[in-house]
Write a structure and sequence with these properties.
This protein has 1 helix and 29 strands. The protein has 372 residues and is mainly beta. The longest helix is centred in the C-terminal third of the chain and has 11 residues.
């Protein structure tokens, strides 16, 4: 059995921003169109856009498990829908034209990764189940013929109690081989230049966190930057650079970090919690969980405040909290997803908070004018 503590890991209307905060910012209440409704018990934020396709994962129907992957065109038309045998708690772009989902099969209690591709209007899937002993929380990267995954609970065969767990493993097919590198609670990660970059947290509910580089060949670990209060969340590469972007969730900031020196290049001030961010041209778009808005930061501007703020024009009982955003690079279309897992055993679940919406063409026009 896993050690106690590690095993636990496995298991408004829009608020108007203050005048001081919005100084120099254009704020708009933006009309949105509902692309698809999510179950009132939907627990995950899995969604991404890729060259004309919006990928949406749904994990519940009438509060019961029902794992469906949907592909939409950017005009909101459902192209295809397929069922999977595992949850989709994490989704990322895997390669041009494909996405990867990771999750657990409730019948086997084993985790799987599935690569999906849209071919001639049909979703094609390839699912691989990880054998007993490895547990996927999310995919980090693939290189050297191996996939690298994060397991926040740690290697079940690791019997050292007084050190951080072995929380990264590689897999060529289904067998997990844990790296000897020890890293506390990885919550997000990616690969670049044959190295792994991860967000590491000290403990559940603890805002102390760090950005860490891991060399999977030498097993060397290097802390790039650390904070006792930031609660880093999410990790992406700033397009066209080798800089890392993460959300300092507890400090209401987006930060840009040099992956070589660890220097914090810029800090961008958001109005509230940013649980998801994306890019378009020379802009960073931050999905604001508290204000139901997407804040657009122009990196060509010296300001740390957003240039544009696009506010979802739905009342709080129809859309409550942006958990993920996605920008289609081909059309500049912006999507937002609200997902709050209402529990019918302890709550009155009578509101349709959960849905995926698309911002109108006028937002795409503003985005192109500002960011290209």
């Amino acid at each position: 059995m896993r050690k106690f503590g590690r095993s636990l890991i496995r298991f408004a209307f829009v608020i108007t921003s203050s005048a001081a905060y919005l100084s120099g910012t254009v704020a708009s209440a933006s009309t949105v169109e509902t692309i698809t409704m999510l179950d009132r018990g939907e627990p995950f934020a899995s969604m991404t856009a890729d060259n004309g396709t919006l990928w949406v994962a749904q994990n519940r129907r009438n509060f019961n498990p029902d794992y469906r992957l949907q592909a939409f065109s950017t005009d909101g038309r459902l192209v295809d829908e397929v069922r999977l045998n595992h949850t989709m708690w994490n989704m990322v772009q895997y390669s041009p034209g494909s996405v990867m989902m990771t999750g657990v099969n409730p019948r086997t209690n084993l985790t799987s990764y599935t690569v999906a591709r849209l071919e001639n209007g049909k979703i094609r899937l390839k699912t691989t189940e990880i054998a007993l002993g490895g547990f996927i929380n999310f995919w980090i990267a693939s290189f050297g013929g191996k996939h690298y995954f994060a397991d926040m609970g740690g290697n079940p065969n690791d019997d050292q109690l007084d050190v951080p767990a072995q929380t990264i493993f590689s897999a060529t097919v289904s067998n997990a081989r844990y790296l000897s590198t020890r890293l506390r609670m990885p919550l997000a990660g990616l690969g670049m230049n044959q190295k792994l970059y991860l967000v590491s947290h000290e403990a559940l509910g603890n805002p102390a966190s760090s950005l860490v580089e891991v060399d999977p060949t030498s097993m060397q670990k290097r802390v790039l930057t650390a904070s006792k209060s930031a609660a880093y969340a999410g990790l992406k590469i700033l397009p066209g650079t080798q800089d890392l972007v993460t959300s300092a969730l507890a400090e209401n900031k987006i930060i840009i970090v040099d992956s070589q020196s660890g220097q914090v290049r810029r800090e961008l001030q958001t109005k509230g919690y940013t649980r998801s961010f994306d890019f378009f041209g020379h802009c960073i778009l931050a999905g604001n969980d508290e204000t139901n808005s997407v804040e657009i930061f122009d990196l060509n501007s010296p300001s740390d405040r957003p240039t544009l703020t696009e506010e979802v024009d739905l009342p709080a009982d129809q859309f409550s909290g942006i958990k993920s955003i996605a920008v289609d690079q081909a059309t500049a279309t912006v999507f937002a997803r609200a997902a709050f897992a209402c529990n019918p055993m302890s709550q009155v679940c009578d509101k349709d908070f959960n849905r995926v919406v698309r911002f109108g063409a006028e937002v795409a026009d503003r985005l192109r004018a500002t960011c290209q």
